[in-house]
């Protein structure tokens, strides 16, 4: 059930991200809903699930930009792995910790992703980190809490805790 | 514990390796993989959501569309007059006739959900889209078609780092290369503009037509700031985009044809009485 819920969340998140989220952009900065789904999956189910969900969601995003196919998949795989491992060493069930994990995950993702893009398109890495990554991380974190709570109703920890947050 | 036996490491090695393989494979392979997955999984999904959204939008905007149609009909009459005037002047100057463009409407079905937002997918009538076709919105130049599958066209935006545009200052005709400025979502940099070139804040920037990728004269934006760069040799021109790429809903594909209005038929040159005298030198050489 949880696997199906995660797969559905990834697909729905992708559709919303690609069709609705551009309309709530502020100065061109958009929240990354798929990253929230990824963080939640990694937090609840561990690093292996995090890596798999990260790769799948990143690959979906990459399809729109075939010139850099694999960049998002790589960045999100690493994020899923890192979040899954970090979470194992901290207390489960805290919404604040989950929200902070979203902030850290967005920054980590953008560092990897923008570095790969800068290498392949000769873009400016430091400036895009400040002007794209940081605002995106703040915006994503701002919308993360209700989304994490919603996801927590469908995707729960594998064992022990009954509630996600 | 050995590092590679830790939880998640084997999965990371596999997915990381696969990602790198995709990144380093050639353009054709990347495009093939992307199109295959898109055709099987994503197209049906977005078509379904596009239909839902289309129904809701159509219900709400019926009156607005009727009003807009009336306005456009008035503009169309004016356009015919201008077209005839243009044809008369071109004939007087001996210019070759210009073909113009038809507009094929398309609905934006999907935005690139990635951080840079380089592409959109547009639903168009089957058979009306082709790779390389230029895409515009009422505000200005949007991009060009990169791939077509069925009734769906993938459009690479002019804000993509891999899609620089040759542009021109409309007033002074100074030419430069336009690249998206990643430090600001709605700005471009106009590169290769010499320090002595005539370019001022507020100047309209249009496509130059050089290189053949885009026709000349399509609006791109307005010069927001003009400064000398750090070398003192070139100008650092920031261009505010005319198009809001994050809110595109309807776009138009340019199809090179004059359209339904046949100016050649409408235009009747004044009759010259046949006096039997030889024609003056140079007459009839213009087309």
Radius of gyration of chain A: 15 Å
Largest sheet of chain B: 6 strands, antiparallel, barrel
Fraction in beta strands of chain A = under 5%
Distance between the termini of chain A: 19 Å
The beta-strand count of chain A equals 0
Q: Helical element count of chain B?
A: 4
The parts of chain A where pLDDT drops under 50 for at least 5 residues are none
Multimerization status: heterodimer
Strand order of the largest sheet of chain B: 1-2-5-4-3-12
What is the helical fraction of chain B, as a range of percent? Answer: 25-40%
Q: What class would the helix/strand composition of chain A place it in? A: mainly alpha
Secondary-structure map with pairings?
The complex is a heterodimer of chains A (165) and B (287).
Chain A: H1 2-19, H2 33-45, H3 47-62, H4 71-88, H5 95-121, H6 125-152
Chain B: H1 9-24, H2 27-60, H3 62-93, E1 102-111, E2 119-123, E3 134-137, E4 140-149, E5 152-157, E6 165-169, E7 175-180, E8 187-194, E9 204-207, E10 219-228, E11 234-241, E12 250-255, H4 263-266
Antiparallel strand pairs in B: 1-2, 1-12, 2-5, 3-4, 3-12, 4-5, 6-7, 6-9, 7-8, 8-11, 9-10, 10-11
């Amino acid at each position: 059930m949880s696997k199906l819920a995660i797969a559905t969340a990834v697909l729905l998140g992708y559709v919303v991200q690609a069709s609705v989220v551009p309309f709530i952009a502020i100065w061109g900065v958009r929240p990354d809903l798929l990253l929230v789904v990824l963080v939640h999956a990694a937090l609840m189910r561990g690093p292996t699930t995090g890596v798999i969900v990260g790769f799948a969601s990143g690959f979906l995003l990459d399809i729109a930009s075939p010139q850099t196919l694999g960049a998002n998949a790589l960045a999100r795989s690493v994020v899923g792995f890192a979040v899954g491992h970090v979470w194992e060493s901290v207390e489960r069930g805290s919404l604040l910790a989950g929200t902070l994990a979203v902030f850290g995950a967005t920054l980590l993702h953008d560092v990897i992703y923008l570095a790969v893009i800068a290498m392949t398109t000769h873009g400016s890495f430091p400036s895009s980190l400040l002007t794209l990554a940081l605002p995106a991380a703040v915006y994503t974190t701002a919308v993360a809490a209700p989304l994490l709570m919603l996801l927590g109703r469908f995707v729960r920890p594998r064992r022990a805790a009954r509630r996600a947050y | 514990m050995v590092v590679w036996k830790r939880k998640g490491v084997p999965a990371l090695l596999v997915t990381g390796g696969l990602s790198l393989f995709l990144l380093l494979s050639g353009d054709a392979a990347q495009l093939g993989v992307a199109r295959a997955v898109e055709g099987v999984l994503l197209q049906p999904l977005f078509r379904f959501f596009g239909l839902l959204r289309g129904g809701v939008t159509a219900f709400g905007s019926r009156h607005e569309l009727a009003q807009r149609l009336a306005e456009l009909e008035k503009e169309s009459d004016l356009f015919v007059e201008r077209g005839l005037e243009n044809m008369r002047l071109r004939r007087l100057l001996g210019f070759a006739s210009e073909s113009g463009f038809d507009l094929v409407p398309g609905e934006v079905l999907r935005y690139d959900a990635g951080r840079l937002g380089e592409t959109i997918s547009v639903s168009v009538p089957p058979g009306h889209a082709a790779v390389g076709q230029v895409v515009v919105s009422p505000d200005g130049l949007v991009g060009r078609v990169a791939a077509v599958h069925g009734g769906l066209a993938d459009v690479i935006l002019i804000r993509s780092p891999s899609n620089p545009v040759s542009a021109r200052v409309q007033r002074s005709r100074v030419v430069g290369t336009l690249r998206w400025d990643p430090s600001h979502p709605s700005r471009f940099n106009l590169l290769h503009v010499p320090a002595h070139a005539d370019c001022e804040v507020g100047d309209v920037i249009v496509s130059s037509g050089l290189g053949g990728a885009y026709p000349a004269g399509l609006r791109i934006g307005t010069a927001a700031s003009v400064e000398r760069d750090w070398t003192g040799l070139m100008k650092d021109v920031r261009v505010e985009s005319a198009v809001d790429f994050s809110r595109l809903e309807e776009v138009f594909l340019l199809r090179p044809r004059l359209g339904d209005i046949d100016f050649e038929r409408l235009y009747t040159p004044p009759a010259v009485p046949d006096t039997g005298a030889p024609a003056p030198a140079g007459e009839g050489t213009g087309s």
